[in-house]
Amino acid sequence: MSAARRRLPDEVRSAAVRAWLIFSCTLVSLMVAVVASYGHSWLLTPALLTTGLGVFGTLWCLLEILISRQIAAQRLRGPGSASPPAGSRETKRRPDPHRTPLQG
Q1: Is it the case that residue 1 has pLDDT exceeding 50?
Q2: How many CA atoms lie within 13 A of 14 on its CB side?
Q3: What's the number of CA atoms in the CB half-sphere (13 Å) around residue 83?
Q4: Interatomic CA distance for residues 28 and 34, integer angstroms
Q5: Please, which residues have CB within 8 angstroms of residue 64's CB and are 6 or more apart in sequence?
Q6: Residue 73 burial (CB < 10 Å; 0-12/13-18/19+)?
Q7: Long-range Cβ contact pairs of 42-49 (< 8 A, separation 24 or more)
Q8: How many CA atoms lie within 13 A of 88 on its CB side?
Q9: To 10 degrees, the CA torsion angle through 40, 41, 47, 48?
Q10: Alpha-carbon torsion 54, 60, 63, 64, what sign?
């Protein structure tokens, strides 16, 4: 039942890993901010600043993923070609000469 999926290009995979790492650090800093707010600690301000920077960094990495996917798709198409990428569903199907159409 597993669908055959192509492997992502290296730059897309590295951007995705960076996004997950920054997102996880953002969640940790958010949890520190929540605990610091319950404890009335001085760590609340740095934790909130770190959370805000983490949100910005996560969005930046998501944008990087989108851009690198577009660049990888253009690289698959080749320079100056108007045809769809090799693995897309828009490829033309040639009729099989050995197969007869259904008659009914």
Answers
A1: no
A2: 4
A3: 10
A4: 10
A5: 15, 18, 19
A6: middle
A7: none
A8: 10
A9: 30
A10: negative
pLDDT at 92: 55
**Residues with Cβ within 8 Å of residue 8, at least 6 apart in sequence:** 16, 72
Quick check: 16 pLDDT over 60? yes
The pLDDT tens digits for 41-80 are 999 999 999 999 999 999 999 999 999 999 888 887 766 6
Question: Residue 5: helix, strand or coil by DSSP?
Answer: coil
Joined together, the tokens standing for residue 99 give 């197969």
H/E element, 62: helix 44-77
d(CA 29, CA 23): 10
How far apart are the C-alpha atoms of 90 and 32, rounded to whole Å?
A: 49
Burial 3-39 (b: 16+ CB within 10 A, else e): eeeeeebeebeebbebbeebbebbeebbebbeebeee
